């Protein structure tokens, strides 16, 4: 796994080599093993930096301490002096975490005549088959890396090469002949890629902080992104918290020329059923074979490899399939809590013993508070999934024994594992029986007669159920997954933020995705929404930043795009069978997992933040939430204080709202203060 960065001055003005180094070295945590730079037709490595050069490379916002500015040059390259490389208007930077072909896999990497250059973050799992095909077409390889496959695949098939890649990737490729920059991101959004188009210049990087290092001044905040964040606890693509910086969405590519930038989708997911003429058993068997193949492809590594294990079905399945394909015990890593309600440690230990794994465990306690600031730095923008804390710790623990870890992410989105799917499907069935005017007027009025009961399960909240059935499907789903009700958010934003929104509402994103989803049934439309929003922007962002913070590569076999496409074509009632989620997935896994694992109720990767706010973290959290930079600048302080008091007095569980405010303030302290 790696970090990439780059600059293209499309007006032909020269790139400042110091600026490129500054951008790239903010990503050292993503690639601690090596660095490389492409400027003006050749590789370049900074050596023997003067004090003036070292000062120029200091991160302008004061957020990162850079490593030694005197790395060893690439053997035999004889790097040119700075004045020889500053003529280039295009520059690529790369930080490397060595996984495959440890000695020869340095980047940026070029074709034979130096007309195509690539900086790459990720893994192409089918690179060996592609390499064989390309050699048959006459291409000559100098390394054993998947990176070089990208270069020759582009030479052979152009930008259509991405259709052949099976993996996770963010790619920046410079075509010297066409004077064209190709930016591309994997289908599911496992690897990040950000860009900023300012005048004639394009900046791009694996993380926002690298672009900030180039810009110097902090860009203005995007109030619509803040509104999205308060509702969703993450910021959906293509937005970032900054107006002038954007995410390249998953499954998209950008073609940049001297005069234009074209953004287009190269992949989408269809939920049109196509396996209905097969029996349920035949589909389950085919699914098992695909999962087995996806795991096997992800076991290729020249460094130690292990797995995350929570004890749930998804991670247990990955460990089971790894054990079946490996001669050595699988190295497993899990997180435990001192609260039995949240602790999956005992279950994970049982699974590890069943597969004779080499098991490691770490307990998360409220003493994790110092990590809040660390997480704010690594996530670059407000991010409020509390499970980022244990994800960081399990990554840190795993990195002590492995460099690559497989995870079970994706099972819930692919196979309808979340309880919210069950509730929404039932609500929608009732909704279809009633005319819209009846739902809106009668059910909406009845909902107001029931007291608000946020501390009980959703299916027992009569007011919530009636209110959701009064809404249209996309609105109801948005309401059910929002971490902050619309009325609360409206009151929380201060006057200037509300004015800047000019009536903008985050729910429009869900309405658009629900409408355009290539699906016929309600459940598949909800899955499509999650795969376009929650999965890449919350789950995969959480895992990427937490793991890369400690230089750990994480691979997600259940999110292999071949598996995802197959799952999408399975009829919805084979995923959600009655009120049983993951039905076909569990049926496929019965040959490798014990019934005790498959039939256990889902617990989820939760964190006891509500109790922490009333207990060990109370004093720390009070100061950060009530007096933080974000609260003072963008929120209504009185409303924040009211939420805090409601939670402390147990009148209402405000843990999610308060965590959202806390992480916004932690980000603001790092990047706005």
What does it look like?
By secondary structure, the chain is α+β, with helices and mostly antiparallel strands. Helices cover 44% and strands 14% of the residues. The strands form three sheets. The chain has a seven-stranded antiparallel sheet with strand order 3-2-4-1-10-9-11, with helices on one face. A six-stranded antiparallel sheet has the order 5-6-7-8-12-13, with helices on one face. Helix 11 packs across helix 31. The protein has three domains: 2-265, Glutamine Phosphoribosylpyrophosphate, subunit 1, domain 1, CATH 3.60.20; 280-416 and 533-598, Rossmann fold, CATH 3.40.50.620; 608-673, no CATH class.
User: How far from one another are the termini?
Assistant: 31 Å
Query: How much of the sequence is in beta strands?
Result: 5-15%
Number of strands: 18
Instruction: Name the CATH superfamily classification of the largest domain.
Output: Aminohydrolase, N-terminal nucleophile (Ntn) domain
What structural category arises from helix and sheet content? Answer: alpha+beta
Uncertain spans, ≥5 residues at pLDDT below 50? Answer: 48-86
